[in-house]
Write a structure and sequence with these properties.
By secondary structure, the protein is an alpha/beta fold. It contains 13 helices and 16 strands. Bound molecules: threonylcarbamoyladenylate and magnesium ion. Threonylcarbamoyladenylate binds next to strand 6, strand 7 and strand 11.
């Protein structure tokens, strides 16, 4: 694509309103703005302007059949773009909006096809971040925003990550510092008979069970990596088109070692020995406990094993960091519990690792 001049806005004390006004003008004029949310940085454009939404797909080199999430700042805005909203959606909104929950609802005709990848449904989310909410409000329109990375790469958790992927490809980047959560929102489909989690994320399945009688874990416990996996997860068709593509992957190959802590440590030691024998250099991304027992050529310690929130917070930055070091392979420690945000961390690592 043709190079674009990318403006960088840094949010500082005293310039919040002015920054939001300038960025909102770009959105209203049909441009693209990357902005922080509580989960990851998003790349936004007016969700109701097809030409603007096209620019998102171009900037990210994203497949056109992978639909976008419409970010809203109010429930009234959800009603403008969605129809036949089930009662349980309002309970979920009471509990988790604003927050890291995306609901799949039936769409209204006002939403252009490019935004939904031609689907009859629309993903909606109200981000829990003052910059994101301010930008949506000031723009006066729902903002379509996928994660602000080149398609297939780890999602960005800082403005520097966004710039590394998208400088020269988007109109502006708002730098609001490092995000709080670090993995994307939970995607919950409310258009099938039984609500189904299409992507585990910032909100755990247990929390959702508090609001909805029955929830299917379609993308959570097992990896929904391609159409066949989706079918075997009992969904028949690809419900969340994004889940069929390679995702979250650095250029360096990633190996995920899952299981109980003891066998993870044993397996990682063996892998290190094998790679060293071949003359390869190993980058390790691990919990503190694992790091007490193994070491590679580049060691990145993320968190204590019982703190999946911290693992999530450091996950994508960690993958990008090790990708930038002189290593031939990245081995990730999967010895955490697959619970709450831990399920989202393991899901992202499985995708980053492909089948490795
Ligand atoms: O936390 C997040 O959700 C971040 C921030 C920026 O809000 N956004 C994000 O967007 O992760 P993206 O585009 O990277 O992921 C959206 C996911 C994809 O897997 C996509 O296929 C799915 O949601 N999705 C979007 N619309 C859908 C729809 N109508 N039906 C089913 N899945 C949908
Ligand atoms: Mg993404």
């Amino acid at each position: 694509m043709e190079a674009t001049k990318t403006q960088i806005f840094r949010i500082d004390r005293g310039n919040f309103e002015k920054t939001i006004r300038a960025a909102a003008r770009i959105i209203r004029d049909g441009g693209t703005v990357a902005f922080p949310t509580e989960t990851v940085y998003g790349l936004g454009a007016d969700a109701l302007n097809p030409a603007a939404v096209m620019k998102i797909f171009q900037a990210k080199a994203r497949p056109a059949d992978n639909p976008l999430i419409a970010h809203v700042s109010s429930r009234a805005q959800i009603r403008e773009i969605a129809r036949d909203i089930p009662a349980c959606a309002f309970d979920l909104m009471d509990a988790f909006m604003p927050g890291p929950l995306t609901l799949i609802l039936k769409r209204k005709a006002i939403v252009p096809d490019v935004t939904t990848g031609g689907l009859d449904t629309i993903a909606v989310r109200m981000p829990d971040h003052p910059v994101a909410l301010g930008l949506i409000r000031e723009s006066g329109t729902p903002i379509a925003a996928p994660s602000a990375n080149l398609s297939g790469r780890p999602s960005p958790t800082t403005a520097a990550h966004v710039a590394a992927d998208l400088a020269g490809r988007v109109d502006a980047i708002i730098d609001g510092g490092q995000v709080r959560i670090g993995v994307e929102s939970t995607v919950l489909d409310l258009t099938s008979q039984t609500p189904a989690i299409l992507r585990p994320g910032g909100i755990g399945i247990k929390d959702i069970r508090g609001c909805v009688d029955e929830v299917k874990d379609a993308g959570g416990a097992r990896d929904v990596g391609n159409a066949r996996d989706v079918a075997s997860a009992g969904m028949g068709v690809v419900k969340s088109p994004g889940m069929k593509y390679t995702h979250y992957a650095p250029e360096t190959p990633v190996i995920l070692v899952e299981g109980d802590p003891e066998s993870v440590v044993t397996r990682i030691s063996k892998l290190i020995a094998e790679y060293h024998k071949k003359g390869s250099r190993v980058g390790l991304m691990m919990t503190e406990e694992t790091a007490e027992q193994v070491s590679g050529d580049e060691d990145l310690i993320l968190c204590p094993r019982d703190n999946p929130d911290a693992y999530a917070h450091n996950l994508f930055g960690g993958l990008r960091y090790l990708d930038g070091r002189d290593v031939d392979v990245i081995i990730a420690d999967g010895s955490i519990q697959s619970e709450g945000v831990g399920a989202a961390v393991l899901n992202r690592l499985r995708k980053a690792a492909g089948s490795r």
